[in-house]
Tryptophan--tRNA ligase
Amino acid sequence: MEEKKKIVLSAIKPSGEITLGNYLGAIKNWIGFQDEYECFYCIADLHAITVRQEPRLLRKRVLEILAIYIASGLDYTKSTLFVQSHVPAHSEASWILTCNANMGELSRMTQYKDKTAKLKENTSISAGLFNYPVLMAADILIYNADFVPVGIDQKQHVELARDIAQRFNSSYSDTFTLPEAKIPENAAKIMDLQDPSKKMSKSDDNQNSYILVLDPPDVIRRKIGRAVTDSVGVVNYTDEQPGVKNLINIICAIKNVKPDEVVASFEGKGYKEFKEYVAEVIIEELEPVQKKANELLTDKSKLEEIYTEGAMKASYAATKVLRKMQKKVGLLPPVRK
Ligand code: ATP
Ligand code: MG
């Protein structure tokens, strides 16, 4: 008998345009899983609305992300590509899990603390932002995912999903697979170009802090040119030079080389030459992705076909687990005709 494939689930939320951090820390890592595992890759629009979004822009970004997924090498004939809100099981499971999560564990989530700290004074914080890790637990658990490939910033949330799963399994009976985060080696955390002590994020207000996957070459050159470095002036891979270290990590993640090799090839050379090289490496990587993504975005009907098919496949898998959850907590099933 053929062995059942392990299941992979991951997602990006359309809270901004996809950055190089999302591409290297998440998408690029997802591609390699497609042959070995059964993969579900989602566009997490319900997560995006935990902070207020411009509706028209949000809809546009969802399609853009799908186009970038496909252009980067996610194959919709192998993997299930879908939009989170098209699969109602996510929201339904999320409520059941909310009732099995506790305030204390949610209060300890560092992402919540970071995100609320960034909000301006007097901005009201949505309960959705607080609860978002539970929705993420639902995203993972309703597919019985074994692996969740994410950047290191999301590791804590995957661990929470695991804790909630374990608790549910022991309270009711075995229901969920316990998920495990898979963190990429070189691109676990791509840092902000303007402040290399924090993570590059698509929702940042400062456009110079990130590279977007769809940034044109001249914009990439300009942003890398402006990236904050230091006064040492020598290309080293050390925590004392976090800006330079980050740029080296970007090269390593794209070229699949070791930091020492990059340092050696820039011996005796300055930051100008180094940054020019970094920009060209990024441009070379992103150009084919941009070309394909822009092509896909000219024919919305193909994208519609892909996400419709994806939602059907995802719903089929998720609903099976959701039914189990509903039954175990004691919800009376409706008569289905
Ligand atoms: P936001 O600022 O709205 O939270 P984000 O850039 O953090 O946006 P998410 O949608 O929260 O993006 O995360 C999507 C995926 O990208 C996750 O797997 C996350 O770990 C990964 N990721 C996000 N930023 C980085 C980064 N700077 N380096 C590596 N991986 C990242
Ligand atoms: Mg994030």
Notes: The chain has a mean pLDDT of 96. The pocket of adenosine-5'-triphosphate (ligand 1) is lined by residues 12-13, 15-16, 19, 21-22, 25-26, 150-151, 153-154, 187, 189-190, 199-203 (CB under 6 Å).
